[in-house]
């Protein structure tokens, strides 16, 4: 039987939920990127940068709470891993938007919208899952689905690479676009890392 957690300990759950909600904000900004013209992208990048900074603040708050708490709701290394992986997701999404602006990309290749749709769905699932860490219930379907989405993201990524190397683009454009789709793939991987960490926590707590 699990001991009742103190009010101080429960703040971790609120902070994880806040971090995941911020990732949903980032995924919505990524979706906006698809329909934005070049003149609107700089403002969009600024909003994404603000969201990424909010994510950093959320991560630092978790680390501060971890360092100042004698008792934690689950293993310290798992708290650190979960917070770090959530932070990685925001970092990768912000990097992708920033690269589109810095490289002055006129048109994203077909398939990027599928990458972003996968990330948006993974963000929603992650935000829905974080509050369930309190009770360690209804989490199995979450990590199974995120792992399925990551496999889907892998397939989309491979198709995008094949498209980029089919001779339609010049060499410099290929390098620019490849870096963007690679960063979006890293975001998908980071979602899987979060799900795997949640699974590890749930197994330990069962």
UniProtKB/TrEMBL annotation:
Top-level taxon: Bacteria
TM helices/strands, residue ranges: none
Organism field: Streptomyces lonegramiae
Protein name from the UniProt record: DUF47 family protein
Homology family: Belongs to the UPF0111 family.
InterPro entries: PhoU-like_sf (IPR038078), Put_Phosphate_transp_reg (IPR018445), UPF0111_domain (IPR052912)
């Amino acid at each position: 039987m699990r001991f009742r957690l103190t009010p101080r300990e429960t703040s971790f759950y609120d902070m994880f939920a806040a971090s995941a909600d911020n990732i949903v904000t980032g995924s919505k900004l990524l979706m906006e990127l698809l329909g934005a013209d070049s003149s609107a992208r700089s403002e969009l990048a600024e909003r994404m940068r603000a969201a990424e900074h909010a994510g950093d603040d959320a991560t630092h708050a978790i680390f501060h709470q971890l360092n100042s708490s004698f008792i934690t709701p689950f293993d310290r290394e798992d708290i650190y891993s979960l917070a770090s992986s959530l932070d990685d997701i925001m970092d990768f999404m912000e990097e992708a938007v920033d690269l589109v602006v810095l490289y002055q990309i006129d048109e994203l290749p077909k398939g990027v919208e599928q990458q972003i749709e996968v990330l948006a769905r993974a963000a929603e699932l992650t935000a829905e899952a974080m509050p369930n860490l309190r009770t360690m219930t209804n989490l199995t379907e979450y990590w199974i689905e995120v792992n399925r989405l990551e496999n889907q993201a892998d397939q989309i990524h491979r198709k995008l690479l094949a498209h980029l190397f089919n001779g339609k683009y010049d060499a410099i454009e290929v390098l620019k676009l490849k870096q963007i789709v690679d960063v979006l793939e890293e975001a998908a991987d980071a979602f899987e890392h979060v799900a795997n960490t949640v699974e590890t926590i749930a197994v330990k707590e069962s």
